[in-house]
User: What shape does this take?
Amino acid sequence: MGANVMEEEDYSLLKDLKLEISSEDGTFSLCFWIYLMNSTPFPATIIRQVHSDITTRVPFLVLKESKKMMLLPLLFLHKEAPAPGNSSSVTQVPYASADTEFPLEKWVHVGCEVSTDFVRLYINGEIVGEKRLSSSLTNNSNSNGLKRVNLVSVDGNDDGVQGYVYNAKILPITSSIKDHYDKDPPLQLSIDSSSASEIEEGNDGVWSIVGGKASCRRNFSLDVILLDVFGHPVNKEMEVVASLLYADNGAPVEKPNDAEAPLLTSYDGIEFASGDRPSKLLHGRASFKLKISQLSVQV
Assistant: This one.
């Protein structure tokens, strides 16, 4: 139940990510926060390179089958860049790679530093991989082609990669990726454990109701607090909505025909569908009185 993703201007679905490389020499730093679902398949291409003169899209940032992230060379900038249309070339080109598995179901900061002679991969502000490369900027054609390279997430097909992105920026290569990591982190809601003795929050962010018979777990109250990903409280006023989700894939529990909503909220003794009656977040806190109307499904 619940979600760790806030819906505001700087937050977007991963599939909607599109960034334009505007630097004259092709060097840049890409910084963003990403939240990937447990349902993410492996291997998975997170970001692709697109060009108006190339019909196929070339991987740029990939999660390997081992769940480790790798950063590939850039089209028209590096001689080692993958050949468009040749999927096998992706595994044959040099790349920067992390040594540890990429975390799922939590916000992670990713930085990609692209220079004419190297690429560097950052996770949570720290360098985790680097690869030396050769520049291909030896003629005007490559320089002109480089100016029309964009970075996108999806390739027009549903490849099963679901997630969210926050504060994605293309910055000059002189900018500090660590500063982007430290400044303005994403926000998330957490349960105030002192107000909910029968609710547990797992390491994956899933909230579970525990204890007692099912019929006794229908009604419960809880307070939530707004924190940044570093665990610092945030004093912000906004509206929040409680939702009932399937724990395995994050999909909402749908309302059956001619039945009440799966999750209800109570105000002054009157019940409403939780999505129809947000709670106000005041000084970074909000209270809910909730009722689960469907207990025949695992959520």
